[in-house]
Structures are given as structure tokens and as C-alpha cells.
Amino acid sequence: MKLLNLIFVLTGLITLNTYAQTKIDSPEEKLEKDRKAIKSLAGFYEVNFNYGEVTAPDPNYKFSKPYESHGNEWAEIIVDEPKRIVIQHMLAINDTTVIKHWRQDWTYEDTDIMLYTEGNAWKKGNLTPADVKGKWTQKVYQVDDSPRYQGFGTWSHIGGHDSWSSETDSPLPRRESTVRKDYNVLNRGSRITLTKNGWMFEQDNKKIIRSASGDKLLAIEKGYEEFTKIDPETFANAQKWWASQSAYWADVRGVWADIIGAQSTFKIQTVANGKLLYETLFSLGDQSIKEKWTASQNKEKIKAALQPYLVK
């Protein structure tokens, strides 16, 4: 009898364990797991960048030199809403130099998307609610808050492992935009995976020559950006700088949103009147802080400053 009872107990435990492993999250539970994973991307990191071309259809193609770099990067959550999370990245070069870096906006079940075409031009995509059901869009922006690329995908949490992936077109990466003229579109295959000490941004990228006759593959590269958590004290100066600049850059984001939202197609030029776009906005930010502009003054001057960079 005791043996029979033991068998019943063990059978019950196995059943409960199986149920726990196969239990499907409710939409609310899944959404909260997604949000937790996205918010885990924020923090203080040492970042190692590694990229290398691995194959090309042309046997005579000369592979580019592998790219390696590293830096200290702070990723701060600046908007935290139920279905929208915005993370701003800052580079800390040393104790005195701070660079406002890229930004990633995460939006849930978002049918609005801007798709990169080529030549610093984007167009609005046509997504249906069914296309994005249960999915998050990652919208990536340049240091000057102009658009870079946007892709959507599903966060997975199977076995306690958190990951997200997507595929989308983008401009050339900053590391090649000034030195490569042999391709004009980067098709990004992106995978984000949370790790014990941070996260990994893995990429399978296709370098594309896009023309009126279609797309031609030039080469394929693998990329790894490894974010490893480090001491926050490294970023004390960056935090101080951002505290003084954050209101201005919120106004920059607002002006960009108005400009982009009003158009079905959108194109920019990165240089106007002899100045790079980011130089213009960074200088304007310093002036705003020095002269203590109001939000309305910021927006008025930002809008005027952007006009020469917008291709009509």
C-alpha cells in the first residue's frame, strides 16, 4: 500500500512538473516577460564590437578587413509605458568625453513602420494587426535622432532563455558609411539574446547593391556586439551630462516625430551648409543649455535647423 501511495505521489509530481514546463503564458504574462527582457537591455556596459565578412557569390571578391572595437556604453530607459519602451545609449570615452549614441524604441503590436529603401530614404510600410500580433518593433535611430532602421519580431522565453530576432534593410553601418562605395543597403538579420552578464547583439548581414533592376548580393558578414555589465561609476560624467541635455533631446525627438509622421516617404542628407546633421543638433543643444531656452524655443530652432537636411 505504501508503495502504491509513493507511486501516486511521484506520478503527481511528474505531472505537475510537466505542466509547469509546458504551461502557455496568457497574453498578459507574455507581455510582461517581454517588457522585462527589453528593460534588461538597459544598464552600464563594456561593449565589444566584432564584424567580419564570411562569404561572397563572386569568387574574385576581395574580403574587407575584419572590424574590431570596444567602448563603454550606458543604456538608459527614458520612456517606460505599457507598450512602448525607449532606451537611449551614451558612450563614455573617458572621464570628460560623452557622446550621445544610438537610440532604440520598442513598440508593441505597432502597425506603423518606416522601411529603408536606399540613399538615406525611407517609406511607410503597410502592416496589419495580424502581422504584428504579439510582436515588438525595434526602431533604431542615429545619434542625431534621425531614423536608421526598424524591424519587428517575437520575443521568445523558452526554457528561461530570452531572445528576439528580426530582418530589415538599413543604411550602411557607421563603420563603413564613409569608406565603402561598392554597396548601398545593408540587410540586417538581428538577434538579441540576454546573457548572465548582459546581452548579445548578433547579426547576419547581407551587403546589397540596390538599383532599378533589383538587388544584387555583394557579400555576407557576421557580427557580434557583446554588452557586459560594468561598474556604473565609470559613467558618472555621462549621467551628469545627460541630466543637463535630456530635455533638449526630448524636444528633438518630438520634432523628428512630427516631421516623419506627416510623410509617407522621407529622405535626408547628412551634410548641409558645410555641417553634418549631428554637429548642427549637438551645437544647438549646447546653445540651448547655455541660453536656457524653453521647450517652445527648442522646438522652433530645431525645426528650422533641420530644414536644410530634408530632401524635398
UniProtKB/TrEMBL annotation:
Which first-to-last residue range defines the signal peptide?
Answer: 1-20
Pfam families in alphabetical order = DUF6607
InterPro entries in the cross-refs:
DUF6607
Q: Which UniProt keywords apply?
A: Signal
Question: By what name is this protein known?
Answer: DUF6607 family protein
Q: What is the lineage of its organism?
A: Bacteria, Pseudomonadati, Bacteroidota, Sphingobacteriia, Sphingobacteriales
